[in-house]
Write a structure and sequence with these properties.
Jelly Rolls; 2 domains; 45% helix; HTH_AraC-typ_CS; transcription; AraC family transcriptional regulator; transcription regulation; HTH-like
Length: 283
């Protein structure tokens, strides 16, 4: 018998539905926790913040949040007078093409996605139907809730697919572009002494190199390369002031320059003075 092939999954899309519930967030969630299943949160009303794997993400009505297995998270209240209403859905046993089993990745490889237009309307409609079905407790409830879940997963996968095909990489216009830029800056701060490839960063973040450079320039006013150069030269300046025993070549290597001559020219162009002269004037 010929094995059935599917366009979105490696096998039949047959998730195990675990739960569906609405929650009005009136106080901070104290339990910073993770699951061994996929959990979705759809913000249906209000605004708030999710603390996810050490990063705070602002959320508002129409946002979709994915907590994959092992992702630590908790929900926080930002305005006691304007609570968020969150619709939670838990499930397991999916294996999507190009991804590990029981993993659902959103555009941009970030846990929060701001829905708009038709998708937002359809997802919120599914949440309403799930809430009514859960409350009714009629026979066959599990199977109808599972059908709604499958519909929701397909909508999400179509959005990911459309975003990818339209922009040759996952491109998203949302407040979370600030998160992408902050991650790049953190990476530069941690690895400025190493060889850094913008192409590799873009690949790891599921974004095109062009778009990554574009949003970085939009958020910081500088290109990623110039930002990295300025960071390296600033670190070099600090080392020249702090470590009088290190040679100029040693300092150049510590801030990511293999060619000491190129480092010296870049330093003089940036600060208007050669590194050797800068050291003699400041010590």
């Amino acid at each position: 018998m010929r094995t059935q092939e599917y366009d979105l999954t490696y096998n039949d899309l047959n998730p195990t539905f675990l739960f569906s519930c609405n929650l009005e967030r009136v106080e901070d969630e104290t339990n910073y926790h993770a699951h061994d299943f996929v959990e979705l949160s759809i913000i249906t009303k209000g605004t708030g913040v999710y603390h996810i794997d050490g990063v705070d993400y602002p959320v508002s009505a129409g946002d979709l949040v994915v907590f994959n297995p092992g992702t630590y998270h908790k929900s926080l209240v930002t305005n006691p007078d304007y609570h968020t209403t969150e619709h939670y859905i838990g499930f397991s046993d999916i294996h999507l093409r190009g991804q590990k089993a029981n993993i659902l990745i959103l555009p941009g490889n970030v846990p929060v996605y701001s829905m708009s237009g038709k998708m937002k309307q359809e997802v919120l409609n599914i949440c309403n139907r799930m809430a009514k079905e859960s409350a009714a407790a009629s026979s066959g409830r599990y199977f109808l809730l599972k059908a709604y879940l499958i519909e929701l997963i397909v909508l999400i996968l179509r959005e990911v697919e459309d975003t990818s095909s339209n922009h040759k990489g996952y491109v998203f216009e949302s407040p979370y572009r600030k998160y992408v830029v902050s991650q790049m800056i953190n990476f530069f701060n941690d690895h400025f002494s190493e060889k850094i490839s913008l192409d590799q960063i873009a690949q790891n973040m599921y974004l095109s190199t062009f778009y990554l450079a574009k949003i970085f320039k939009s958020e910081t006013g500088d290109t990623p390369i110039n930002y990295l150069i300025n960071l390296r030269l600033e670190k070099a300046r600090e080392l020249l002031e702090e470590d009088s025993s290190a040679s100029i070549q040693d300092i150049a290597e510590k801030v990511g320059y293999e060619d000491v001559s190129h480092f010296s020219k870049s330093f003089k162009k940036h600060y208007g003075i050669a590194p050797t002269k800068y050291r003699s004037d400041t010590i």
